[in-house]
Amino acid sequence: MTYPIGTPGQPWGDTEIAAWRARVVKQRRYADDVLAAVEPLRADFDVSEYGALDYDGERFPLVAVRSRGWRESLPTLVVTGGVHGYETSGVLGALQFLRGHGLETAGRANLLVVPCVSPWAWERIQRWNRDALDPNRNFRPGSPAGESAALVSLLAPLRGRVLMHIDLHETTDSDEAEFRPALAARDGVPFEPDVVPDGFYLVDDADQPQPEFQRAVIEAVAQVTHIAPPDAHGHIIGCPLQSPGVISFAVSKKGLCAAITGARFSTTTEVYPDSPRTTPEQCVQAQVTAVRAAIGYALANA
Questions:
Q1: 14-300: which CATH number, 1.10.3720.10, 3.40.630.10, 3.40.50.720, 3.90.1570.10?
Q2: Is 176 one of the annotated active-site residues of the chain?
Q3: Mean pLDDT, to the nearest integer, of 256-267?
Q4: Where in the sequence is the active site (predicted)?
């Protein structure tokens, strides 16, 4: 597969990134989909702006929703969504969780939810940010990705004090049709096709595995949507299974979002919205179910 930008074998420079950006079209509005949805939550939660992105004259406020009456003596739970803007159910799932279940842990735990980490990419249904950087490979201090740097700064005071962190993602057909070919072209390497997993799965941190926690989340989500089976090699996205529907990955070493809090229990969800066996509503519900199961397990095993 040849991507329409760049020269095979040569990494992109500024010219190629500008050409890629010119192909990216705004398809929805962060202000309508996220900021407006957060406004009613102010009745029960503290909503704050933890930063802002300014891209080509467009300003994107970055918002976090916190438990009212935050107490340092309570365990802290973190939910993040929209690290990749095209992964719709992560954002909608975080918002739906807040609306329907956000008060369930009131008085028992502190809750911090960032429903949309990457608003520019949300509007354009893209994986990368404006500078063709993947936020989910850049969560570290001094990150070149503004989305990642802002979230790292927000969560830095909590590092090592977070009980549970769940990061909500999707795996879609566009991974193979667009995003992985674009990545290969950007980096000047050959594109190696893979199989898109048909179903829900989780990504555990290979350096800090919590297999029982992962299994508890999988068992809950299996009541809502189907769990991804392994491919013919016994893998999901090239990784061997830790257990059904769970793979291990170098989450910390690769700069992924789920590792930045140093939470005792952490996971990354992956929903497959393009499956004929599920619906967009079920995908959102799978995210909500995963969050509730993760919280339930973490608090029971704190």
A1: 3.40.630.10
A2: no
A3: 97
A4: 270
